[in-house]
Amino acid sequence: MKNKFEFKDFPKLETERFILRKGTVDDCSDIFELYANENVVKYLPLNLFESVEDAMVEINWYEKIFKEQIGLRWVIEEAKTKKVIGTCGYLNYEKEHNRIEIGYDLKPDYWGQGIMQETLGKIIHFAFTSMEINKIEAKVEPENKASIRLLGKLNFNVLFSILKSEYIELNEESRL
Ligand SMILES: CC(C)(COP(=O)(O)OP(=O)(O)OC[C@H]1O[C@@H](n2cnc3c(N)ncnc32)[C@H](O)[C@@H]1OP(=O)(O)O)[C@@H](O)C(=O)NCCC(=O)NCCS
């Protein structure tokens, strides 16, 4: 099967206000600040970061998924200030189905300024035009209104699911 997920170098992208680039050791303190914030990790499958070492582990993971060609994670750098304000990217690439999952987060000071809409717009275009991706999925908690609104603006449709724990809980309740 045709597979264009074969980048020799990490792809650097640009939007009007931001540079999307590979994360490096120099970004550790920004990544730490990002994920040491309770409001950022609230709906993410991540524990609150407790030290800069946690950020180093995260950046190493970005490197690993890129090398294994199962994902790409960009850090979002504000072009004007050179500050790293968040991350976005892809994980869990399934070659057989040309399917991938999207992930994203921003420091709270930057929420509500159309930043993620701008950056995701860029990486979605990139996935469909340069990575041979056919389907992009997003896993979102129903309470994460900002993320749901953002995905709606980007024309994502709803996907339903049920967890085993929810199924058991509901069925136990109906037996009472
Ligand atoms: C989700 C998140 C990335 C949104 O980024 P953002 O840059 O603030 O989003 P945007 O400014 O591009 O907003 C996109 C749309 O969502 C709306 N929106 C943003 N925050 C919202 C909120 N808290 N409640 C309702 N709508 C919201 C915006 O108003 C905009 O819609 P509009 O153009 O009609 O006004 C940000 O809230 C975040 O980092 N959250 C924590 C991490 C996280 O949950 N990531 C997603 C995991 S699935």
UniProtKB/TrEMBL annotation:
Protein name stated in the entry: Alanine acetyltransferase
Organism this protein belongs to: Lysinibacillus fusiformis
Keywords associated with the record: Transferase
Domain of life: Bacteria
GO molecular function: protein-N-terminal-alanine acetyltransferase activity
InterPro entries: Acyl_CoA_acyltransferase (IPR016181), GNAT_dom (IPR000182), N-acetyltransferase (IPR051531)
SUPFAM superfamilies reported for this sequence: Acyl-CoA N-acyltransferases (Nat)
An example Gene Ontology CC term for this record: cytoplasm
The N-acetyltransferase domain, residue ranges: 18-176
